[in-house]
Structure formats: structure tokens, C-alpha cells
From TrEMBL:
SUPFAM superfamilies: Alkaline phosphatase-like. InterPro entries: Alkaline_phosphatase_core_sf, Phosphodiest/P_Trfase. It comes from the Bacteria. The lineage of its organism: Bacteria, Bacillati, Actinomycetota, Actinomycetes, Kitasatosporales. It comes from Streptomyces violaceoruber. This is Phosphodiesterase.
Amino acid sequence: MTRRRAVVLVTEGAAPELLDRWGPDVLPAFARLRAEGAWGTMRSELVPYEPPGLISAFTGHGPAEHGCFSYWDAHSPDYEPVVLDSCSPRRPLLWQRPELADLTSAVVNVFGTHPVQPLNGSCIAYPMRRTLHACHPRDLPVRLGKEGIHPAHDVNIWFEGQDREEFTGKVLGADRARADAALHLFDGGQGDPPDLLVLNLTAIDRLSHVYWQELEPGSPVAEEDQAVRRAYRQTDEVLGAFLDRADEHTEVLAFSEIGFGPLRAYVSVNDVLEAAGLLTKRADGRPDWTATEAFEAVQGTQGVNVNTTGRYKHGIVEPHRREDTLNRVREALLAHLNPYTGLPLFADVLRAEDVHSGPAADRAPDLILVPYDWRYLPLGDTHWSARVHRRLQSGWHRRESYWGGLGGSFGTGAGRTGDPLDVAPTVLRMLGRPPLDDLAGNPLGAAG
């Protein structure tokens, strides 16, 4: 039986309008993928954020099944953000499933892989804290270093208003090193070439957050020097290298679980709740938990939680009052006008139980906020938002991105709109493996 191989390249944050804007002259590999393979829209979860999207993609189950709604637990009992890790998902990642135990995998920079778990192959994990142990086998960094490859982790590269070239250079350099490591592993540089290679590139996302304003009309930055454009060009080069390795036995899937667009301002939901008498602040600006009924959840969830007794250390809302509190919070948020536009801040405020159904649905925030104008978004938990300098950003995620596949199982031409749940069954088909009955999605490919 002929061995099948699959490459999955995540180009985190890629915006379809920019792929179209720059086209084949700037992004020849993306153009090649579209011309020679299948191509379609990828639509994210209701809240476009990396953790729920990536974990859904590589488990084949939605957030209400795997339980990851952000980088952090949305319901930390003591209110301090708790980072999720490889032990958090309640469903196994695809390469951890026993049905694929005979296949070798190389996984590079995917959220949910740290602390690194042993696997049949190699892994450069995605740590959310500084660590010396983020690889499997443990000596992989040493062996890669001997080849001149030195991958860096995103946790070491935070934007704090530093020099543009310094930050851009570090972000691009980290992505390039991760790509070099992935190509080296794919080509068998550390042993047998893997059956499955998964690489997550983050430069487009990281630089779009900080330098989206350079893309807008009137920008003083020359187009060829725009930081985001440079990230797209480098990502295109990596995609081209993998497309060059495609053959009758090797297929390539590229996608992003999130798109991107402009950001004008974050709005503190806690301020809105305070004005409505639902939250009381301490002198340092953080909630006084003993006098707060509802508060904004961690960033990326676009959520609000009710300070319920039994669930939180200083909860004051008894369970029988939860429904009334939810109604009052919802009314206050829907009535609030965006201070920058005079229009509604939220198009809708949804109860978690109306959005999510599954064994991990209780991990979602109690209310989910749907922005009226995606240029104005909820700030998120003030403690962590301040630490990551969130107010310095000029771009944020959108729900629509793209997917593209090259290989016999994809066909050629336009395909349907997909979502992250379709990635896992697509990978199985690329590898020539039968479908798994418990997966919710369907393989991506050309229509008809």
C-alpha cells in the first residue's frame, strides 16, 4: 500500500481581502494553491479566537465538547486568569488518537501542546509560559541547533511599544525558524519523514494586531515596507516550499481559523456594568468581588460572567437569582451606546446555553457578546489586558478567512464554506484513513 503524507499549514490571521489585494505578484504560492487546488472560505466559531478554533480543528469537536474558549479558563474560582494547557482539552488531538497510533507526526507551534506530551514523532510545542522543556523528544532543540535551526516561542516576544523594526524582526525571525524546523523534520532531517506535518505560523496574526493601521488609506508607510505585508510574503514563501514537496502521495492543506480586520478601540464592559449598578470597583480599578454581581470574562471570550455563589470565591449571586441577573446584565448591555459612534455597542447578548450544547458547555462565559461594529470590541479581563498592552492594538480577528487544498483528494476549483470542525476529517482523508464516526465535520474539497 502506498504511503500517504499530509501537510497542514495554519497561517493564523490571514484575511481573504488581503490575499486578493496582493494577488499572484506578491503572493505567488497562495495564487498557485488557488489555481491548482481547491479553495474556499473558512468561517470561525461565533467568537473568532485562536484557542477554540485550533482545538476544534485538531480534535474535530467544538468548544462545548473540548472545553477551550480562550487561552485562559473563563471561570477561574479566584478570578485570576488561569492558562489552559495540553491537559485542558477534553477531547484528544488528532495525532493522539489510537486510530492514528501507527502514523508518525511532526507538530510545530500548535496551541494546546504544552506541557509537551509524548507522541509517535516530534513536537515543538506552544508554551504559554517561559520554559526550557517544550519539545519532544526532549533533546530536539539541541539536535536542531546543530543544523543551525533555533525556533523561538511566541511567549518570548511581546509588543510593549518597542521599536517597530525590532519587534517585526523578532516576530518574522521566530516564524522563519519554526518553518525551517518543520521543513527539516518533514524532509527526514531528524529520522524518518513524518506521515503528518502540522505547522502553525503566527507572524500574520502578531503583526496584524500591532500594525494594521499601516494598511489603511493615507498610511505613510510604503506598501512594500508594511509589516503585515512582509508577514504575508514570508508565509507565502513557506507555503511555496511545501507546495513544491506535494506529489501524488503528498497533499497540502492551508487554512486560518481566524480572519482579520481593523480595530478602532476596546470598550471596557466592566465600566458599562458599573454604570448599571452591577459591578463595584476597588481603588485600583479592579472589581470588588464582594459587591459585584457580574463582570467581564477573560479576553477572547467576548463574555460576561455572573458572580455566582459556589462557583466563585466571593460569589454573591445565589443560584436562584442567576436568571434575573442575566436578564439585567443583558438589558444594560443592549441599551449601551458605543461612546465613539453613538450606535449600539452590541448587536446581541446571548446566553451560553443558547449557543453551546455539550459536556463542556459550562466552561463558556455565562453571556456571549456579539459586537454591533467589529471595529469596537470588548476589552476583556482588565488584569490580563493590561499585561499584554491590548490598547496598543490596531487590528483584531474576524470570523471569515480561507482554506485551500492541493492534492488528489481535494480536486480543483471552488469549494464550500468550511469551519474548523472540517479540518480533522480532511486530514484523515489526506492520509487515506477512514472517517471517524464521532467527528462532527466533513472533508473539504472542490464542489462537485
